[in-house]
Specification:
This protein is an alpha+beta fold. Among the domains are: 224 residues, no CATH class; 250 residues, Alpha/Beta hydrolase fold, catalytic domain (Rossmann fold, 3-Layer(aba) Sandwich). The protein is built from 13 helices and 40 strands. The N and C termini lie far apart (54 Å). 52% of the residues are buried. GO terms for molecular function: aminopeptidase activity; serine-type endopeptidase activity. It comes from Asticcacaulis taihuensis.
Length: 750
């Protein structure tokens, strides 16, 4: 096997640059496979304008075709979003203009069709309840590619289908889990046309439950997967919303109902809602709920007949959790399932991946860390479980499949000192796309063929930022006051030298979340202006194992808060930070932490809350008011992972998760910054987005009013039309300008 070295200095312009009037270059063969940035000079001039740091990532999604011959990615060309495909062999490309809309993931169906999907979370059960509101569903729907703007249907029709879910009612609803509901458009990149999958399957509108899988049928690729039938009323005592397995054409969207041989297509007394297929499209298992017996069953197909492999009692008014099939086990016979840990229930459920053997026996938990963060990896050729990737500060791969373990090791070795994610592989995993970020690299996608030694840089995600002004990021750890080890990310300004610098602490939102290595736009803005930036993964953060996450229970505003101050003392002791020039800035929970910090002038010179929480009781009541009936927290505080099929994450909108960190409700009032205004000594900046659906804008307004009434130093900035995550360039720029102006007044860098 030949091995190659690709350095940015030698390789020249990336693939993405080809679409912006720039020239591409070829890789050079050497003795090892490495993709890395060139050595960069120290900056000698003034920093670039802040707008270059707040631009959206140039590349949003990347996928490799099954044969590894084509790359697809979503990018921005001037003012519009485009889907671009590139053929590695002849360097030909195709471009499809996309209308605005959220893209959760992309994947290849065949040589000419790319699937664009947007996922939301729904309750799993015989009524397929919806967790999010119809407004959320409409706003997250992916618009079809722009072909004929005068034609009715397409995205508008699909949005109407999703909104219809809110009004559907079925007698005898039973809920037993969480699942993905996905709007999928099949894009013909040659014809630049799109077909919304599910719209033409039957007389009813149908919604995909996950992204359909491409399989070869009679020499032609077909898409196969479960679809939810969106009927308005029940017929013959059957469930109103039934799930069927469909095989459809990626070009026309026309499909054929797949009979799984269960003899229950009319869904009388039984509700089949999921199937597991092998790589050839053969049905090997399915999930069934029996109305008469109130029983959920995972069935395997044995000698052409369905046999029960696992059964669970699920009563109508109970909140039992049914296992979800994730894929084939390591031996090719067992099934990997995502299931609740025995004995755990409701909002306190804990989850694991297990192997369900052919004889019905369950293995011990498979994942090395946390099933809601660890992701199963399957061999793309065999479909068997290859291992797991643990999400945290950087991806960590734990693979048992020898070939996959070796290839993923090579992938990580290809970018020394960076956090490497394997984004996509071909059916032959020797061909893959990786994303490397961290250190002094803002992040770039690379194609690697470990068989031929060919590599290709697909593109940087932040090419506008001059390389010498990308602030260096490194991992640090320090001990909290009680001895707990806290991991953190430290961003060092390109200049001046890191010695007794003004410090900004950026606690992450969540709090059940974590900061990962990579380009953080606000940290980069602050570092470019001379600030040292610390991003602590305080106790309660996920990504560091269940025990560390559990250490945050009941510690909202308590030890979670002191973990931040302990980081300041650590950097001061190292001589890196000036303890007299420290401010705290955060979003969401981080905004709450900033407001709490304003009561502690001995540590914090100023505080900025971006979409932060000021009144805990009001916030919790607001979160609960958004939940559907039944409350999904009672089944599982989970949300479907939009970019990882058949995987789940903690639900950031879950009241159960929030209250677990808060502890006893009797203490919430004392923990609310709104009620601590008399103790606030540091100046405060409040920034809030009017379209924030995670924290209502009134949380900042009432804090502003209370501070003003008490004669405290407060600055208030409202961002019209922006969301909680500050996803638009306009919102980021306005936030950065407000923050820098505030810091110049109360904690200048020089």
């Amino acid at each position: 096997m030949s091995r190659i070295h690709l350095a940015a200095a030698a390789a020249g312009i990336s693939l993405a640059a080809m679409f912006f009037g720039m020239e591409s270059a070829c890789a050079q063969a050497t003795t090892e496979v490495v993709v890395k940035g060139a050595l960069r000079p120290r900056p000698v001039d003034a920093p670039p304008p802040i707008d270059v740091f707040v631009k959206r990532p140039r590349i949003e999604q990347v996928a490799l075709s099954q044969d590894g011959s084509q790359i697809a990615f979503v990018t921005w060309v001037e003012s519009y979003r485009a889907l671009i495909t590139y053929r590695v062999a002849d360097k030909s490309n195709r471009v499809v203009k996309l209308n605005p809309g959220t893209v959760s993931a992309i994947s290849w169906a065949d040589d000419d069709h790319v699937l664009i999907s947007t996922t939301r979370t729904g309750l799993r059960g015989t009524c397929e309840g919806v967790v999010q509101s119809s407004r959320d569903a409409a706003s997250s729907h992916i618009n079809r590619p722009e072909t004929d703007t005068t034609k009715e249907g397409g995205a508008a029709e699909a949005m109407a289908q999703l909104s219809l879910m809110e009004s559907l009612k079925t007698p005898g609803c039973v809920y037993y889990g969480i699942r993905a509901q996905t709007a999928v458009t099949s894009v013909n990149v040659s014809e630049r046309a799109g077909t919304d999958l599910g719209a033409r399957l039957s007389e009813y509108a149908n919604l995909a439950l996950g992204t359909p899988e491409p399989v070869m049928v009679d020499g032609k690729v077909q898409l196969i997967g479960p679809y939810l039938e969106l009927r308005q009323q029940s017929m013959g005592g059957q469930p109103t919303q039934r799930v069927y397995l469909w095989r459809s054409d990626p070009q026309t969207g026309l499909g054929k109902l797949v009979d799984d041989g269960g003899g229950d297509l009319d869904r009388e007394h039984r509700y089949v809602d999921d199937w597991l297929l092998d790589r050839q499209g053969n049905i090997i298992a399915r999930s069934v709920y029996n109305f008469t017996r109130e029983q959920f069953t995972l069935e395997r197909k044995v000698d052409g007949k369905w046999k029960p492999a696992l059964m669970r009692k699920i009563e109508t008014r109970a909140t039992a959790f049914a296992p979800f099939m994730a894929g084939l086990g390591r031996d090719g016979q067992s099934i990997v399932i995502f299931d609740a840990e025995p004995g755990s229930s409701g909002a306190d459920r804990r989850f694991h991946y297990y192997e369900l053997a052919a004889d019905g026996k369950l293995s011990a938990p498979l994942e090395p860390g946390d099933a809601t963060r660890d992701r199963p990896i399957f061999n793309p050729e065999t479909g068997r479980l290859a291992g797991f990737v643990q999400t945290g500060e950087a991806p960590e791969y734990s693979l048992t499949d020898p070939l996959m373990r070796e290839l993923y090791r090579k992938a990580q070795d290809a970018a020394p000192g960076q956090a490497v994610t394997v984004v996509s592989t071909a059916r032959d995993p020797h061909r893959m796309i990786i994303f490397a970020q961290g250190g002094e690299e803002p992040g770039a996608y690379h194609f690697i063929d470990f068989t031929t030694g060919k590599t290709l840089e697909i593109g940087d995600i932040h090419p506008e930022v001059p390389s010498e002004w990308v602030a260096s990021q490194k991992s640090v750890s320090y001990k909290a006051s009680d001895g707990l080890e806290i991991g953190a990310l430290l961003t060092l300004p390109p200049k001046p030298e890191p010695k007794r610098l003004p410090l900004i602490v950026l606690p992450h939102d969540g709090p059940q979340a974590h900061d990962s290595r990579g380009f953080d736009w606000l940290a980069q803005v602050l570092a470019s202006r001379g600030y040292l930036v610390l991003q602590p993964n305080y106790r309660g953060s996920d990504g560091a194992g269940p025990a560390f996450m559990a250490a945050g229970q009941g510690q909202w505003g308590r030890r979670m808060q002191s973990d931040l101050a302990d980081g300041v003392r650590y950097l001061a002791d190292q001589g890196l930070a000036d303890p007299a020039r420290v401010c705290i800035i955060g979003n969401g929970y981080g905004g709450y932490a900033a407001l709490e910090g304003a009561t502690m002038p001995e540590t914090w010179r100023c505080a900025a809350s971006l979409g932060g929480i000021s009144d805990i009781g009001d916030y919790v009541n607001w979160v609960k008011s958004k939940r559907s009936v039944p409350d999904p927290d009672q089944i599982a505080s989970l949300t479907a992972d939009p970019v990882w099929p058949r995987a789940f994450s903690p639900d950031p909108g879950s009241a159960a998760i929030v209250t677990g960190y808060l502890g006893d409700p009797s203490g919430w009032s004392a923990l609310s910054p709104r009620n601590q205004v008399a103790d606030i000594k540091a100046p405060v900046l409040l920034v809030h987005q009017t379209d924030d659906r995670s924290v209502p804008v009134r949380q900042s307004k009432v804090m502003r009013d209370a501070l003003q009434a008490a004669g405290k130093a407060v600055t208030y900035t409202e961002l019209p039309g922006s969301d909680h995550e500050l996803t638009t360039e306009e919102a980021r720029l306005a936030t950065a300008e407000a923050v820098l102006k505030f810091l110049q007044a109360y904690n200048p860098a020089n």
